[in-house]
C-alpha cells in the first residue's frame, strides 16, 4: 500500500506523520506550510516542524510515462529538454545584457551628475567674483534722475556714438522697463509650475492636419508671403506680410480679410500684431517701420530710424516700444506712441544684423548677424553681454522660450541650436538634411512646443526635443509659423502665396 501526501495527493519522497491529525505529508510541503501558518492544514490545530514524525519507507520508483517507452519518444523527450535549456539560456543572456546596460547608464548618470555639480560650483564662484567686481562700477555709473543720458553706448567691441536726434533712455523709461520686467518674471514663474489645462497634448499634435488653405491674401502677380504673426489675445486674427508690398489682416474663423495695409514701397519682411490693441507693426527693405491702426487701415507712425533695409522687428512686452535691426549694423529702440527714436547702437563687430527678438522679460534681447553670430544685449546698459558662436552662415531666425531660459536659433547651416541662457552654452542641436533651409522659429506660449518653417514645417516637443509632426503640403518654401492660443492650431505661410491652418 502506498502513502499519499494530504496536500499534493502524490506519493511523498520524504513522508512525515502529523501527530495532531494523523495525516501523511511531504516534508518540504508541510514545512513551508508551517512556516507561514503554524497549524495543521487538516484540522487547524497548532503544529510545529519538531513534532513531525518521519516515516521510513522504501524508495519510490516512479514508472516511466507511456510516451518514454520507445526510442523515438525518448529522443523527443531529450529534444524538448534541450529546447527548454536553450530558451532558458537565451532568457538569462537577455537579462544579463539588460542588467549591464542599466548599470552602465547608472554609472554614466553618476559621472555626469558629479561633473555638473563641479561645473556649477565653479560658475557660482565666478559669478560671485564678477558681482564683487561690478558693485563698485554700479555705484560709479549711477546718475541722478533727470540728468540727460550721454550719447554714448558701451559695447563689447568699443564705443558707439549715437546720433544727436535720439531722445535717450531716460530714467523714467528705464524704470518703466524694470517694473514691467519684475511683473513678467513673477508671472512667468507662476505659469512655469503648471501647464495650461486646455493645452493641446502631444498625441493631438501628431494628429494635426490641414483644415484650411487660403491663397488669396496677397497679389498673385507678385507671389509670396514673407512674414506672419498671430494676435496673442484674439488668435482668430492673423497678420501676414507679402512680396506685393502689402500687409494683410485675416480672420481665420470668418475666413474674411479684415484689412489690407498699403504704404511700403518695397516688400514687407517683418510683421507684428500688438497683443492688446488693434495695432500692427510692419518693416520693409525700404528702411521704414510703420505702425498701423487696423480699423481704419491707416499709418499712425512712420519710423525712419535706419539707413538700410530693416531686417528684424520685436515689440517690447510693455507694448509701447519696438526693437529693430538693419543691415546698417545698428539696432534701434523706438517709442511707437510718439514715433521718437530713444536709442540707436552700432554693432561694429558685425557686417550687418539679420534678426532680433526680445526676451520675455524685456530687459535683454537677442540679435543675429550676417557673420553667424548670435548676440545678447542688455537694453538698459545698451551693451553686448554675451555672444553665441557655432552656426555657419547668416542667422535667419531666433526665438526665446516663454520659460525665459531657452533660446532657439537657426542659420543657413540646416540646423537649429538650443542655448541655455543660464549657462550661456549650446545644449542641443537639431541637425536637419544638408539642403534644409530654415526661415522662421517659434515657441508656443507655454514653452511646450517649438515649430520651425522652411523647406517644410516641423513641430518638436521641448525638453525631449522629439519631432512630433512634419507638414510638407506647401508647394514652395515656408516662410513663417505661429501657434494659436494653447497650441489649438498652427498657422504657416509660404512663398506659394498660401496661408495654411493645421488643427485636429
UniProtKB/TrEMBL annotation:
It holds the Pfam family Prp19. SUPFAM superfamilies: RING/U-box, WD40 repeat-like. It catalyses: S-ubiquitinyl-[E2 ubiquitin-conjugating enzyme]-L-cysteine + [acceptor protein]-L-lysine = [E2 ubiquitin-conjugating enzyme]-L-cysteine + N(6)-ubiquitinyl-[acceptor protein]-L-lysine. GO terms for molecular function: ubiquitin protein ligase activity. Keywords: DNA damage, DNA repair, mRNA processing, mRNA splicing, Nucleus, Repeat, Spliceosome, Transferase, Ubl conjugation pathway, WD repeat. One of its GO terms (biological process) is DNA repair. Its main location: nucleus. Residues 1-72 form the U-box domain. It is found in: Nucleus, Nucleoplasm. Pathway: Protein modification; protein ubiquitination. GO terms for cellular component: cytoplasm; nucleoplasm; Prp19 complex; U2-type catalytic step 1 spliceosome. WD repeats lie at residues 261-302, 346-387, 388-429, 471-504. The keyword Protein biosynthesis does not apply. Its EC number is 2.3.2.27. Belongs to the WD repeat PRP19 family. Ubiquitin-protein ligase which is mainly involved pre-mRNA splicing and DNA repair. Required for pre-mRNA splicing as component of the spliceosome. Homotetramer. This is Pre-mRNA-processing factor 19. It comes from Frankliniella fusca.
